[in-house]
Design goal:
Layout: H1 3-25, H2 33-41, H3 46-80, H4 92-105, H5 114-136, H6 140-163, H7 168-178, H8 187-214, H9 218-222, H10 228-250, H11 256-264, H12 272-296, H13 305-329
């Protein structure tokens, strides 16, 4: 790691630490100085319960989900050589959502971990189809089109699940999950998501050499000594695992995977290998900050994190698309 990369990652981790502190200290219930003192000195107090068993795991889950989506976006943008690629473009997120919706409609929401396992099964099925397709057809454009088709199919499947919902309560549960949130998450979710993110990050870094070589073009990459086909599959596995794990825990939260890599891309000179860690950290910082803001916005019912990210991300997506279009014209 170069000195500039270390400074960038250090600055992002400092920002993450500050936002994590804010996430623990701030919330819907305002604490006085005495409340904070009791929380820090009496582990059995109600104040300590709120800080360490409610706010802390929620903030950690927001960090891990944001990091997973940022990593998935960086890997996909390097793999597809498309600055507009994000985890939703290949249908992994929508496939995970279909799996979770099916589990909720089937009445498994009360079974611990059932919805998450179903979501990961959906993401795994999508990843398997994508990897099988990528192994046969190398063109990134074909993979994008296949991903769009898969996303449309799983979106239609989710709509069918809505249509067949046995009760309005089940329908509301599915809709609530699909809107995306880290509310009421626990250390169990942290323990479940952290190792999956670690595996995805290591896989992405392993594939990073291939992503860097792809910036020179498919023809040049094919003539290199690197096992490009294998590295592409590893990259696709990393993106699918990260996106699927994030969706399984928090529901659908869009635009993080698209925007986070662009926030730090210029600082790593658009190197897709060097981009992976900063993009993951930027995604973590971005989503954790959004979660703090969601808690502080005065409203009778807490706004969903996925909704807030869509409201913020859509204008940023338009700016990124306009910038990319100017680059394509030139």
């Amino acid at each position: 790691m170069s000195g500039s990369d270390a400074r960038l990652n250090g600055a992002l981790m400092l920002g993450i630490l500050m936002v994590l502190t804010a996430g623990v200290m701030l919330g819907e219930v305002a604490f006085s100085a005495g409340d904070y003192a009791r929380a820090l000195t009496d582990p059995g107090s109600p104040e300590a319960e709120v800080l360490w068993q409610v706010r802390l795991p929620r903030s950690l889950v927001a960090l891990l989900v944001g990091a997973s989506l940022g990593l998935a976006g960086a890997v996909l943008q390097g793999l597809l050589r498309n600055p507009l690629a994000d985890p939703g473009v290949l249908g992994v997120s929508s496939s995970a959502a279909s799996g979770a919706a099916l589990a909720i409609i089937a009445g498994l929401a009360m079974v611990p971990g059932a919805v998450e396992v179903a979501a990961m099964a959906g993401a795994g099925a999508a990843a398997g189809l994508l990897m099988a397709f990528a192994a046969r057809i190398r063109a990134p454009e074909a993979l994008i089109l296949f991903g769009v088709a898969l996303s449309s199919l799983t979106g239609a499947l989710t709509a069918l699940i809505f249509n067949l919902s046995p009760t309005p309560v089940a329908t509301a549960e599915v809709m609530n999950w699909l809107l995306g949130s880290v509310q009421n998450r626990s250390f169990t979710d942290v323990a479940w998501l952290a190792p999956l993110l670690a595996i995805a990050l290591v896989s992405g870094l392993v594939a990073g050499r291939g992503l860097r070589m792809l910036t020179l073009g498919e023809e040049v990459a094919a003539t290199s000594a690197l096992p490009m086909r294998r590295l592409k599959l590893v990259a696709l596995f990393a993106a699918a695992l990260a996106a699927g794990a994030a969706t399984a825990v928090a529901g659908i939260i869009g635009f993080v995977g698209l925007i986070a890599p662009h926030l730090v891309r210029a600082l790593v000179r658009s190197d897709p290998h060097r981009l992976l860690v900063p993009a993951s950290l930027a995604g973590a910082l971005m989503l954790a900050l959004a979660d703090v803001l969601v808690r502080l916005i005065p409203s009778e019912q807490e706004l969903k994190l996925g909704v807030i990210m869509a409201l913020v991300g859509a204008p940023l997506f338009a700016l990124i698309a306009a910038h990319a279009a100017r680059g394509w014209r030139t």
